[in-house]
Amino acid sequence: MSSGNFTLPGEAGYEKLTMELARRWGADVIRDSDGTRLSDEILNSGYTIYSTVCPVREHNEWIKAHPFARQQVFLSSRPAAATGDELVIQPMDGFFKEQFEINDTPDAMRFWQVYDRTEGLPLLSEDWRYNPKTACVVIRSKPWRQYSVSFLAWRVWEEISMYNHITNNWDKERLMQLNPYDPEALAYLQSWMQLWCGSHPRTGVVRFTSLFYNFAWIWGSDARNRNLFSDWASYDFTVSPAALDDFEREYGYPLCAEDFVRQGKYCAAHRLPGKKKLDWMDFIGRFVRRAAASLVDIVHRAGKLAYVFYDDSWIGMEPYNGHFEEFGFDGLIKCVFSGFEARLCAGAPVKTHEIRFHPYLFPVGLGGLPTFSPGGKPGRDAMIYWVNVRRALLRAKIERCGLGGYLNLTREFEDFNKAMDIILEQFRTIRELHDFGQPVKLGPRVAVLHAWGSLRTWTLSGHFHETERHILIHILESLSGLPFDVSFISFDDIDKSIPGDIDVIINAGMAGDAWSGGERWREPRIIENLTAWVHSGGAFIGAGEPSALDGGHTFLRAAHLLGVDIDDGERACHGNWAYETEPFPGLFPDCFELPSKENVCLIDGGTHVLAEVGGRPALTSKAFGEGRGVYLTGFRHGPGSARFLLNLILFASGRGLAPEGVSNNPDVECAVFPGHIVFINNSGEPRQASCRWNNREYAAELAAYGLIKEDL
Amino acid sequence: MSSGNFTLPGEAGYEKLTMELARRWGADVIRDSDGTRLSDEILNSGYTIYSTVCPVREHNEWIKAHPFARQQVFLSSRPAAATGDELVIQPMDGFFKEQFEINDTPDAMRFWQVYDRTEGLPLLSEDWRYNPKTACVVIRSKPWRQYSVSFLAWRVWEEISMYNHITNNWDKERLMQLNPYDPEALAYLQSWMQLWCGSHPRTGVVRFTSLFYNFAWIWGSDARNRNLFSDWASYDFTVSPAALDDFEREYGYPLCAEDFVRQGKYCAAHRLPGKKKLDWMDFIGRFVRRAAASLVDIVHRAGKLAYVFYDDSWIGMEPYNGHFEEFGFDGLIKCVFSGFEARLCAGAPVKTHEIRFHPYLFPVGLGGLPTFSPGGKPGRDAMIYWVNVRRALLRAKIERCGLGGYLNLTREFEDFNKAMDIILEQFRTIRELHDFGQPVKLGPRVAVLHAWGSLRTWTLSGHFHETERHILIHILESLSGLPFDVSFISFDDIDKSIPGDIDVIINAGMAGDAWSGGERWREPRIIENLTAWVHSGGAFIGAGEPSALDGGHTFLRAAHLLGVDIDDGERACHGNWAYETEPFPGLFPDCFELPSKENVCLIDGGTHVLAEVGGRPALTSKAFGEGRGVYLTGFRHGPGSARFLLNLILFASGRGLAPEGVSNNPDVECAVFPGHIVFINNSGEPRQASCRWNNREYAAELAAYGLIKEDL
Known about the structure:
- By secondary structure, the first copy, chain A, is an alpha/beta fold.
- Chain A has 4 domains: 6-61 and 180-215 and 289-435, TIM Barrel; 71-155, Sandwich (Immunoglobulin-like); 445-652, Class I glutamine amidotransferase (GATase) domain (Rossmann fold, 3-Layer(aba) Sandwich), CATH 3.40.50.880; 668-711, no CATH class.
- In chain A, 25% of the residues lie in helices and 23% in strands.
- Chain A contains 16 helices and 33 strands.
- In chain A, the strands form 8 sheets. In chain A, strands 1-2-3-13-16-17-18-19 form an 8-stranded parallel barrel, surrounded by 5 helices.
- In chain A, a hairpin with a 2-residue loop joins strand 26 and strand 27 (616-624).
- The two termini of chain A are 24 Å apart.
């Protein structure tokens, strides 16, 4: 059995099991987890020890003594319609009372706002008052208009603690979270960190369960509507009067509640960021780096390494914002369901990249279904996630992997343990291949264009299941295992001209979202540059509602490149081009189909329909100058999707569909490393495949989910 | 056999057939048609004679001598992208050369515009020039921007003549059309009308094939894209430099090409009309009435009646604009596929309402399929259209009916003749019932709310098949045969308050269209009044994307009344309310289903989901004050739809679902007249039904498509 580069969660009380599994799986590290601890026997067993700390929780005593250092959030009350000239709104109505408490301190009240949502204007302060006794806002209303109250609330239950209590039936103390923006809190944290290092001599790696601010997760009071808002990339949980005041001093303009709550829509990462949001991210990001670096420094001075877990309270820690190295972390740990998450981790500028496999050793998975509890199939789940992730590992190096949770739960699930035997063997095989050198890439260099650009390299926001309705996450997931050079560019990056090292640009989203680009397409330079670039040979692939924006002569601003438009209702009286479908041989793997989209219309007689679904064009191609525009109605990651995307990128950029280095079986992918070729079978059935390389044919007979490495 | 109130098309050369069918079908009128003439034998046969005239065509000689009096249109060229600093556009490129010719007279060139479509701005006149020799516009361009040329074109082939030539293989002379806005042309027309009346002594009724300006119908040069734009209600074909100049003098501001071509989207009736369009309609409408009244006057002075056919060149003749009586017409003739068209005709303020049955006695129907030609089934078609129309005739009186086309074609289609035997018998039975008095209506008074209001009573624009994608036409068609009082109101009508005689308001459309209301929902008064009205007991039914408009805290501005919203992408991170479907007994007839709509979401725990489709709410209900908001995802007219709509209106307004006067079988409808009850079977199979009235039960056994009248 192979060994090394594997982090096993140990568990006090299960020392024998811990040692057994450490040996079985070749662990070199044993960790504690949120909810477990390591006994002296484990700590002294000779393994390197990772210790989990979450800087902002486990300080309930201190927080109780310093309630002003609790974390906060702007909330927007449910809008209510006035029936007369006075309207009473209970702002907390509908919010989870165990998560939030109104902050009605004078310092906070400065930031409260009452909005007339019918007209879209804030009320003057004399037109409403807050009654602290009843916790109600009394509004001088215009009859039949709708109003809502935007207010500051304390967050009184740390969200991950809350989630685990409720989902995994924890019954230990409910944790609060302190806000290190408060100087006293930060000083406390630093001294706590110092003490902690001193009292954990066996710890080799301090594993920060991320940092200070959780992603936005706003819960509701009604069990039928518990999740009000959840965005892995929102900064809603970073606010406090002190930070807002400092921001105003530094940036020269104030932020108000409405800048965060946006009519109750909040500022999800799927929407286009405006200047205010970007400024706030910049402001908070600098604070987070400064404060976190002071903790990392303490860890380093104690002779330990500092790794960070890139989930939960990660806000302010974008690995691709150009400042990640300022933290001084030695490693980045990312839990992974999917290939794109592995690429996200692998590309971050840090020494050690470690992935955390799903499922966690918890009774219930993140999706809410049983895993290590009756009805769960954790072995099957683990293998499915692994197969998702494995493709990406072929393309980019990940140094380490590991598990998290309650090790004792594995006792009842030998199917999981067997799956881990296979997974670890394959992980180490792939890891080693990267030591021989870079895997071979195919020619076309792909850029994904959206409003966030490189900041959101290999991600939208959160796990796959959180962003599933977005076409782009499906494309990223398929792309994560393809042998292409992939970059992520923003509209700012193409404002002057399209960078010279791009052959294919993909824009995939829904009208108005950050992924399609919305308002950014109103800038003539963007269209001009893209038009010039395609004309000179570039390939533009648009999926869903790419470049969609109202107000233009077409709804898709790149319609002239694609030869199709989306009818937003303006074309109800316009005729359609009749067409014959012209399938391109080999483009579609079996079992892959595009979705039907009702309002797609050809706007050009030169547009070729390569596939139709539901009697409407689903895939089109149009020559434009030396280049090409390709439109597809949508994209879902699944069987055949990655091969289709590979084919489409080759087709759009004018290459042949079956280049060397690509397997002849869509279920099987391969990667060519210096001296080696590796085949992976993504299917749960045995598969045969072959691949040409340097005019030689390599063949493989693969078991279900199998991996075969051959010498070249 | 019954007789009277029927207009038969005669045909010279088929005198025996004409007389035979006149007797068989009890005709009291014989007409000529576009393409046929009546011989002296027919003219002298003792029947009243309708003679068809189309005022603007059949004047080719005069038009050739007065080419400046031809009709015109603004066209917008295909946008083209500049590759350098000069771009050449051939404006006529893509347009049907047999329909249009460039008007490059100095008078017309004043109105030409060249637009930078990338930036959305018109070019200065020094930045482009037209070369009449090459018929090209040369543009000083910015590289990679798109430009289009908006220009005036002569229309050189009258569109109905063009259509019949091409569709029905006519080979007679191609007709042009004169523009009576030219004073010389109008004077010519008046003298022609005078002469015409003198030379047609046998004619009792001059049947105007509508008036001067055809609905917009812009054809393309490519057979794959022949129909570029077609809107039954657009004013595009009414323009001329003279009219535009007069407009500016009268209204104090000029119109330009862009006001008509709108980036090449043109001004379809499905879009919200702006002030400029409404002003232009007002301006042209007054001219059309003035000019047409002068012709009607000539007809009247010749001792004849003047009827008008409400299709084709009808622009400027809205029957519901409050000025229709100024024409002085004695009758209005409407060809009908559908119930809503019969209601449209029946409600117009004119003495005689006459419907023209489909199919016309032409080889090919309006939809392009064979009718009176091999493969056609005109008898089946006639019965299907009749069953559509018959429901509406139960609710509103139509005095006359008739046919049009080539009578000789009926010889090969006895199935059609037999169908007409039945249709005419049933028509006369229903017509007689109205002589006993008004049919009984159920309580709730329904108003359809859209941007056009009463101007577009019982219509969107054109026939059903032309507007089929719009939810509202399906609702109108179902509504046309229901026993409700129905009115059509605009946002102006509810700007002060909701009129007191309304119980149910229906708003049904797609975001941004005239039927949903688009920008009109930005006005707080509209929301306030609707909110107040529902709170005090009104029922608001929204279908599709009712009240949808961006920029608000909800995408549906009436979301607070409906309890649902449509997610435009802003709610990607918001949770959904869990719900249990609560079917309301009896609401859905068998075989009727609502469409699934992906982005519908509950925004209120008090919203009841009455039906779901595809795992999403499809029909919801929410109490609001004393009233109710009901949302449905869409609506298609078809089996069961009318009964569902009847049920829904009763449910929304708080009534029981099975009132007296409604049949117990959804396939069978009935109407109660003073002293009589009539049942109609809308199904092609025999049906039984019964109906309670005054606590008595009336029963009927109906043949396929049968009608049974019983005494009360």
